[in-house]
Every structure is written in C-alpha cells, then in structure tokens.
Amino acid sequence: MELTVSTPAILFSTVSLLMIAFTNRFLAIASLIRDLHEKFRTNPDSVYVAQIQNLHRRLFLIRNMQIISILSLLLSAICMLVIFQGSQPAARWLFVSALLLQIVALGISVVEISISINALKIELSDIEHELTYPSLEATRERFFSRRNKKQK
Q1: 1 located within any domain
Q2: How many structural domains comprise the chain?
Q3: How far is it, in rounded angstroms, from Cα 27 to Cα 33?
Q4: What angle (nearest 5°) sits at the alpha carbon of residue 98, between those of residues 91 and 93?
Q5: Tell me: the pLDDT tens digits for 71-107?
Q6: Distance CA 36, CA 41 (A)
C-alpha cells in the first residue's frame, strides 16, 4: 500500500476536533477544582478533598490525552515530510504510529469518562431513593401501546 500526502492529513482534522474536546474538558474541570478549593477554604470538609482528588486524577488523564494527541499530530506531519522524500516504509511506520497514539488517547478518554460517571454516581447516591426510573417493561408497554393506537 502506498501512502499519499492526503492519508496522514486525514488525522489533522480528527486530532484538532479531539483537542478541542479535551481542552474543554480540561477547562471545565479546572474551574470545578477552583470552586471546590474555595468552598474547602471556607468550610473544610473531607467531601471536598475527595472530589478534588478525583478531579485531579481526571486532569492528569486529560493532560496525557492532550500530549498523546499532539504526538500523533506531530508524527502525521513528519509522515507527510517522509512521503515527500519518497520513503514509503518509514511513512507507513510513522502513520501507523500516529494512528496507534490516537487510539491510546481515545482509550484514556474512555477511562476518564468512566471516572467521571462514577463520581456522579457517588454525588447522586444520597438522593438515589428519591429518583424514580421507569422500568424497562413499563417503557416498552407505553411505547407499544402508543404505536398500536397510531396504527388503528
């Protein structure tokens, strides 16, 4: 398979969009940490410390996602230069490496999202008894009863 310059260029738009998403996450979490830090200063509570630790871990993951994505982008740019020089084996190696780095960044993103979801579950655990979720069976019955009424 021969790579053309447009092949590694595909990663530029993908990585750019992911970097925007990662940066937005980073900024939102940094803002939350500042707010929680201020709350902790006025009311020292261990709950704030636990939340800040969780957010700090997420910031670490997001920073790693950003670094890995930037490395992926850098390898894509180098790959384009190598294609111009006519070295297909090196270009393939660089392109595959860039793709693998992007896969790693997305994998870290999945971990960060799961940590975020777990933190929200802990946050909502004290009001869980007040939350009512319709059962799957009740949802199915409502869906099919509406559907049957429309067909008649």
Answers
A1: no
A2: 1
A3: 10
A4: 30
A5: 999 999 999 999 999 999 999 999 999 999 999 999 9
A6: 9
Residue pair 37/52 in contact (Cβ under 8 Å)? The answer is yes
26: containing domain: 6-151
Length of the chain: 152
Sign for the CA dihedral angle at 146, 150, 151, 152 comes to positive
Residue 95 lies in a domain: yes
Q: Nearest 5°: phi and psi at 44? A: -65, 105
- 97 phi and psi angles, rounded to 5 deg: -60, -40
Position 109 in a domain: yes
User: What pLDDT, in 10s, does the model give residues 102-119?
Assistant: 999 999 999 999 998 887
> Residue 147 is encoded by which pair of tokens?
């559907």
Average confidence score pLDDT of the chain: 86
